[in-house]
Amino acid sequence: MDVIMPQLGETVTEGTVTVWHKKVGDKIKADELLFEVGTDKVETEIPAAVAGTLTEILVAEGETVDVGVTLAVIDDGKETSAPAPVAAAAPSAAPTQKKPSKPAMAKPTHAAPISPVVARLLTEHNLNAADITGTGRDGRIKKKDVLAHIGGAAPIVDGDAEVVPFTYTRKLTAEHMVRSKATSPHVLQAVEVDFLAVDIARRSIKDNWKAEQGFSLTYLPFIGNAVCEAIADFPRVNASVVGEALHIHKKINLAIAVDLGDEGLVVPVIRDADELSVPDLAKAINEIAAKARDGKLSGDDFTGATYTLSNNGSTGTFITAPIINQPQVAILSTDGVRKKPVVIEGDNGDEIVIRPVGVLAQSFDHRAIDGAYSGAFLGRVRQILEETDWAAELG
Amino acid sequence: MENDDIGEEKRLELYRLQLECRYMEKRAYDLFLQNLVKGTSHLGLGQEAVAAGFGAAMHSDDYTFCTYRGHNHTLVRGSSMTGILGELMGRECGLLHGKGGSMHLTSAEHGAMGSYAIIGAHIPIAAGAAWSAQYRGTDQVSVCFFGDGTTNIGAFHEGINMAAVWKLPVVFVCENNLYMEYTPIEEVIPVEHPAADRASAYGLEKIIIDGNDADEVYRTAEVAFAKARAGEGPSLIEAKTYRHSGHSRADPADYRPDGELEEWLKRDPIDMYRGRLAEFGIAEKVISKLESDAIAIVDQATEEAKASPTPSLDAIETNLWADGGSSWRN
Amino acid sequence: MAELAYRDAVAEAIAQEMERDESVVFLGEDVAEAGGVFKTTVGLLDKFGPTRVRNTPIAEQAILGAAMGAAMTGLKPIAEIMFSDFLAVCWDIVVNEIAKARYMTDGQFNMPLVIRTANGGGSRFGSQHSQSVENWAMAVPGLKVVAPSTPADVKGLLAAAIRDPDPVIFFEQKSLYATKGEVPDGELVDELGKAKVLRKGDDVTIVALAAMVPRAMAAADRLQQEDGVSATVVDVRSLVPLDTQTIFKEVEHTGRLVTVEENPRLCGWGAEISSIVAEEMFYDLDGPIIRITSPHCPIPSADDLEDQYLPTPERIVETIRREVD
Q: What domain range includes position C296?
């Protein structure tokens, strides 16, 4: 074992070997006096911790070394020094309790000082301080003044209107939407999808599913499944713009927009959605939607999303232009599926049949990708939905 | 030679406890020379008989409170030696999972209700545990160990006073090892016996014993415990002993007069007890086996502790509150 | 509902909890026959007897040490420290022992105790019997800190503190002992860590604690009548755990924060709240955060000196007039 320079006092950082009481080759008994150490505070005799033979002296009398340096080696017949203690697991990041960061402040152009909230509002609404009349002391612009200029919600009750203050979730939603539009140049593209193949599979197990699971099997898990598969061929829709680079995510963590009514939108995440089968994806969607409505989502449920699905179809809409969930680069809206006449081209001419048809509309960030890429992705999603043997997928 | 009121089984236990304390503390010293034991360590080398004598007399549901020189007192309650050495080395397996260190060894499940680093603070706390036993109507006793230097601090007076007035089942044990940290005790006390000469101020008996004789300690403990369990109130016991090493790590104790250590080493409690076992007819090989068993236990505990990882950083903000967290806000 | 004095609410809360839980015990100086020097514990000895309601010697370290030992071994003690200034006498037990026992042992000890103490000035007792020291306690990790302003809050928060598994220091404000308020009948248990909005306005949010709460309310009335300034008043009630969300919500609405603290200037509880708001609500502030505190001196004893030392409603009104536009 290694004999090291001990730390002989809480503030001591080095020591001097003053006397060796044994020489190389000597046999040593445990607790026998081995050497003496001098520090700036004390002179101390150090006994040998083990019995054995002194095989090496590495630091001579009179030499000063740092605490922990090996001074000598005793062969005690055992393996060399114990392995260093295993380092602890990496710490988990503490969740921050702060509000989302705000954009840079506008330069003050007015004589009286601009307060932080006024600066923020001016920036957010692209206003100039010079355009606002200040009613504060010495003509200072107050928060009220900016809000009045915008025509924003006055805090005082207006006799003619019912004032409904934003809930915390509504406020977060509002901020995020404004910021998203300001960040990404949105382009909308859509495809019409024939859901016959999905529908046949869906109807065949519909009643059993409802009875066993307690909720209905909708189109959404099929669409989610198709999207994950299409992302494999068109990974750039599953990405983020960071500075002047596109970060293409390896994982597919699907966020599902859940409407909480007047309270606003929350967008919880299903991790590794590509690893889930359609039934499992259906259950995962149902679970987080229920958690969202019960207010039981936690911090982890909101992080790490790479692509978002926004399901508007339950209200029967034709098409929706959704707002991108930052920092993603694309979002897909699924709208109403209705029976429509469609033309099927055949070898013997065209015929009109009745099919369940729905529009899938993707808003994409034109900094990241272009129309051809997005269009091709949507085409692939449609192809998967229309051509997959869904009955086999459902097992 | 007196009749053997203590009995062979208890004698062997007393010897075993002293051996484990001695070898464990020596190992702790070796480990600190290897820079494996961190911070500061106050060793009880030479004072094993007090811890062992009281430990062997206690019931498992009694409470003990000791000072930062408390490795032995914690061990004799049955606490894990791996846990003690692990805590000294700052490992996950430590009794306190690396959160407290050498001066705060605790094993509440064994009744070892903490080692206290502020001189005297645990005296009223020990009284409080005794109050709790009195209130709940159990026959538990609270035992409080401290040094000669403690007898001068305010909490000593307040705690013993209240225990005497409320007749609490607490036994106060002063281990007079002749030194208040680096200062000879007679320089800071106006009377000869730091604890025993103050006992009458609280209406308590003056009790002075040889703290290096485990049998004497054991018998004294039994008497004090019986008194406490019978509802007759506290005792203050001064046990004269000596520490072989310095106050804390690397204190070579140069303040000791020449020859004093050598004189006391002649009265090493373990050597004396070894002789006593022989006098009572215990076979040499039984004694030797106890010694080699104790060393083996220390070796095993050392290896287990060394193999334990350092604690996860997640532990930093846990267990401030009963809910396991440390949150102070919403 | 019944009208109850602040001091009587203390006894009612203790009685409520002692009736329901046999492990609750109470100790302090002159608390038994005398019912406490401030008459806060009258009747408890008669109801619960001398083994549960105990007089102690004048020995603060012994009082809190005994409470800690009892809390570690299955009881739920309430310990009275007669004047909060005396916490300095036994501060070791509070901060080195009680606050740290669970953490240092990584959870081996329970510490379900309450230290209740008479805090604050206004009674001409002089500087060693008049301090407000809740900020000392707020600064130590491991202590929960509560300071009610009304009889209903006294009863509800003291009951919650007694039921809380962690150590709670309960600061009763001496100058409020005689005040009266409505207290609901029957069992009352409030929640630690919840501030109360007592008054809603649009121009400034006043955050106050204990005896400063009624003064903030009086100032808010005058500001409304005389200046047309409408103020929100928040009673913090609990410093640890701290209800930051209520404070944030109210500051976001008005854009201005003013604290009213009985502590001397440096490191009063309001400094911490101001710091948190400045950090997390910076972009919602329409002007600097203002703290109204006692000056950084001990408390003088003569009538006018003491009265003007503590933040008065006049000083609150003038400060807000000057600083909030």
A: 196-323
